[in-house]
Specification:
6 helices; 10 strands; 8-stranded mixed beta sheet; NAD(P)-bd_dom_sf; NAD(P)-dependent oxidoreductase; Polyketide_Oxido-like; 213 residues; Rossmann fold; alpha/beta; two-stranded parallel sheet; NAD(P)-bd_dom
Length: 213
């Protein structure tokens, strides 16, 4: 398949690129700094930002699907770290994708978004309400509303806490309550799951919660 990966220079995005290439896909990335990605066979690196509708449309030309691994940047991973911007970047990107018409898109979201908030662990609800994570979740909620009102063929992957661990564990795929999710999920497992959704055309117009035991 020919895939466009947004957020390809990030920690999860890099894994999507690596695993996608290993699976034999052609990957196009759209990044501000092309030097942030190592050139390799099967990877086309385009300079630009997905918040630019024209740049996104050009990058998506001829692609079978778009995988979005963008995030809301903060000064560190700490939940109270200062946001580098309060602009709803993810929502703007979603609107640009929706404007393409009927696009297949698999986008990284988070547990606690939408109807998964009330059933998420209390510490997660506390952090969303009381820390700068609230800006990111407001953006994710806005993204979900936009896709639900569109003709895009979307999957929003509600990942639990992202981990850089290497040890493989059984993946749990379900809702916010059934089966009961674990607290964390490896970024590499998220990358594999997102690629599986594209390859199998699964979880269309769904919001699967993924975690690990």
């Amino acid at each position: 398949m020919k895939l466009l990966v947004l957020g390809a220079s990030g920690r999860t995005g890099q894994l999507i690129v690596e695993k996608g290439l290993a699976r034999g896909h052609q990957i196009t990335s759209l990044v501000r700094n092309p030097d942030s990605l190592q050139a390799r066979p099967g990877l086309a690196v385009l300079k630009g930002t997905p918040t630019d509708a024209a740049a996104l449309a050009a990058a998506a030309e001829g692609c079978d699907a778009i995988l979005v691994a963008l995030n809301n940047p903060r000064s560190s991973d700490l939940p109270w770290a200062k946001p580098l911007t309060t602009e709803k970047i993810l929502t703007k990107v979603a609107e640009n994708i929706i404007a393409l018409g009927g696009q297949r898109v698999v986008s990284l979201s988070a547990a606690g978004v939408g109807d998964s908030f009330e059933t998420s662990p209390w510490i997660m609800r506390f952090l969303i309400r009381r820390t700068n994570l609230g800006y990111a979740y407001a953006d994710h909620n806005s993204v979900e509303r936009a896709y639900r009102g569109s003709d895009a063929r979307w999957t929003l992957v509600r990942a639990m806490g992202l981990s850089n661990a290497n040890k493989e564990k059984p993946l749990i795929v379900g809702t916010a309550t059934q089966p009961k999710p674990g607290m964390m999920v490896r970024r590499s497992a998220v990358a594999d799951f997102m690629l599986d959704c594209v390859e199998q055309d699964s979880h269309v117009r769904q919001t699967p919660v993924i975690s690990e035991k």
